[in-house]
Amino acid sequence: MLQFRVEKTEVASRARLGTLVLPNGTVHTPCFMPVGTQGSVKTLTPAEVVESGAEIIVCNTYHLYLRPGHKRIQAAGGLPKFIGWNRPVLTDSGGFQVYSLAALTRVTDEGAQFQSHVDGSRHLFTPELVVEIQEALGSDIAMCLDECPPYPVSRPVAEAAVARTSLWAERCSRARKPETNLFGIVQGATYADLRESSARSLVALDLPGYAIGGLCLGEASDVTYDMVGRVTPLLPIDRPRYLMGAGYPEDIIAAVKLGVDMFDCVLPTRNGRTGTAFVSSGRVVIRNSRHSDDLGALDPMCDCYTCRSFTRAYLRHLFVVGEALGPKLLTLHNVRFYQRLMQGMRAAIEQGAFENWSGEFLDRYRSSAQPTGEDSDR
Amino acid sequence: MLQFRVEKTEVASRARLGTLVLPNGTVHTPCFMPVGTQGSVKTLTPAEVVESGAEIIVCNTYHLYLRPGHKRIQAAGGLPKFIGWNRPVLTDSGGFQVYSLAALTRVTDEGAQFQSHVDGSRHLFTPELVVEIQEALGSDIAMCLDECPPYPVSRPVAEAAVARTSLWAERCSRARKPETNLFGIVQGATYADLRESSARSLVALDLPGYAIGGLCLGEASDVTYDMVGRVTPLLPIDRPRYLMGAGYPEDIIAAVKLGVDMFDCVLPTRNGRTGTAFVSSGRVVIRNSRHSDDLGALDPMCDCYTCRSFTRAYLRHLFVVGEALGPKLLTLHNVRFYQRLMQGMRAAIEQGAFENWSGEFLDRYRSSAQPTGEDSDR
After folding, report:
1. Which residues in chain B have Cβ-Cβ distances shorter than 8 Å to A309?
2. Chain B residues 320-359 with CB within 8 Å of chain A
3. How many CB atoms lie within 10 A of CB A178?
């Protein structure tokens, strides 16, 4: 079982500072969890992820179930050990990937039938199986199987997804071993009353933690914040809250102010691989020819290996000629950028100065923002 | 200028232990130089290359001249600094790449005309320009422009290549600044007398070091060794000797016994990227299903991060699902394997026990060799 202690809650906002003790280690919240879908935070060694300051990563049940298989990982001592990380791992249930990646054949109350995107083989994810897989993986935090509709979605479809998500959460909860840290996932799309009823029905299950799913899928930021702000007051104050798939630094800051504790997103890793860096003054598209002769650091305010060791001119060269080191060095920086963001937030909450800190951060961050058009899908 | 000191020469073989002092650092020979063609040892950070024990790397004049351009690198403080390595770099002249990669339009005594493989632009590499480029790059060791025929090649073509290589070497030597450490390249294909005459004509130029080029191109190992064995006795004993493009551990061992001091090859990096590891007992093709549940280290005798941290089962998983970390971890191991090989050799020469050491190494290495059919091209 997990232990979660809220060390401090800001008076001016709902931002909270917490300590989350998990079987494989302790996590300081608010936290950002780098994504290691298939058991690897893309391009980084576990040692580099540790060095970034990350204390927990997110892996994916759907992918690991297909390859290499949860039984194989169990035989190797569980996921944290198998991947050489040996620290806390949260596994997403795979519901999102079943809907987005697999050829979905049929969803009924029983579960989700799908065909593997790898070899076309047929599978059925039931709430019970998804819990069993995550228990075999030895996840520090397991997620309920949920139904996550795309955005936008009609009210009747959203309603049905909320009902099924609640039904499945109850079955997940019944199936789990007592020591399994199972999180429920609040759905309801962009319908405020559905969000609230989803939250209430999951809270009734008395789960160790709660996630907010089905957001950051393309809706306007104001809508995201509105939905989050309606859900968090309904969640128990002594349980961790996780906003799935967020996102941009400004979104994370806004959600922390609304009382969210945990985040994950592919943005730092995916953008790093494709050549966009998050820096103190905004975003940098490193292939831009303006960097050809720039002998300055990627981010002069950053302490990561990339910023300490290389110029923008060299990083651009690596991307232009297609060297694998380029995507790796930008990923390394971005992952560290997000950890520094969270460290800055935690220090600000500790000092009761979150509003002030976030204003300064965002002023600087927006000073040269270069939107890239990339989305925060997971 | 370089300083080269032969610390010891074996009585039983011609194997020699040396110290090579270069502008950017000291290199212990026999040495293996990882290949960083475009200014990056593929998939590795400079810190990881340092940690492997490598003291010098090889970069490529042709590639860096095209992108990002030698003037740009010069403005950034030279190649060792630009790439964040800050240690000795040898640059190949680019002759080999002009012949193998570019659309070669014409070679005359003046130089090699070619079209860039990147954008089709037209260029002329003269001996003088190639020296000028390498001086701009700030290479610790610069190579003469040479003419390197493919294998097999007729005697008249080989003869002409030897003549032109000598002519160009003389022009390179005249063009260089006094402090430029210029190496001549012995050609002559597989014709013993041509090899000998090529060596004699280059030695007459009194260059700081000598390379043997145009071997390890597909000829039988016996032929390689025969050619090397005919050349090394003709080279001055107080100058470093570099066999270009070798190779497999057994080839390096054989060449060290013939008095060669320096080696480079893409094998450890290329094979690592494509999933073949060099281990104490031979070669391992990591995708092989036999490794699916293997919880042992890649090489139990190795001290690298990969072997200390991960199982063969996890490494196989990374390759099967296409994670970039797989090629990186195998490259890291292979580069360390080659450095451990050279460290073992140097210790053996120091103790006057090279024959004994190499017998033991090769007995173990051949115990489960799995040839992969890959070639040692550069």
Report:
1. 45-47, 84
2. 320-321, 323-325, 327-329
3. 5
Name, in order, each residue with C-beta under 8 angstroms of B245's C-beta and a sequence gap of 6 or more: B213, B215, B216, B217, B264, B265, B376, B377, B378
The H-assigned helical ranges of chain A are: 46-52, 61-66, 70-75, 79-82, 95-100, 127-137, 155-175, 192-203, 221-231, 249-257, 267-274, 305-309, 312-321, 325-350, 354-365
Neighbouring residues of A108: CB distance < 8 A, sequence distance ≥ 6: none
Please, are residues B102 and B115 in contact by the beta-carbon 8 Å criterion? yes
Beta strands in chain B (DSSP E): 3-9, 16-22, 25-29, 31-33, 57-60, 89-92, 103-107, 112-115, 122-125, 141-143, 182-186, 209-212, 241-243, 262-264, 276-279, 282-285
Count CA within 13 A, CB hemisphere, residue A294.
19
- State whether residue B101 sits within 8 Å of chain A by CB: no
B287-318 residues labelled b (16+ CB within 10 A) or e (exposed): beeebeebeebbbeebebbbbebbbbbbbbbb
Is A175 within 8 Å of A132 (Cβ atoms)?
Answer: yes
Per DSSP, A235 falls in state: S
Q: What is the pLDDT of residue B377?
A: 33
- Which residue among A47, A293, A314 sits closest to B84, beta carbon to beta carbon? A314
Residue A102 has pLDDT above 80, yes or no: no
Q: Among candidates A186, A205, A204, A206, which has minimal Cα distance to A196?
A: A186
Contact B59, B79 (CB under 8 A): yes
The residues of chain B scoring below 70 in pLDDT are 369-378
CB A128 within 8 A of CB A175: yes
A92 belongs to the catalytic site? yes
pLDDT over 70, % of chain A = 97
- The CA distance from B362 to B228, in Å, is 20
Q: What is the distance in angstroms between the Cα of A306 and the nearest Cα belonging to chain B? A: 9
Distance from the Cα of residue B130 to its chain's centroid: 19
Do A100 and A163 form a contact (C-beta atoms < 8 A)? no
Tokens of B40: 């990056």
The residue behind tokens 């920086």 is A333
Write out the two tokens for A307: 């910023």
What's the pLDDT tens digit per position in A360-373?
999 999 997 554 43
Judge whether residue A226 has pLDDT over 60.
yes
Is a pLDDT exceeding 50 seen at residue A375? no
Count A/B contacts: CB-CB distance under 8 Å. 108
pLDDT at position A378 is 34
How high is the pLDDT of residue A348? 98
Token pair for residue A133? 């897989």
Range A207-222 average pLDDT: 97
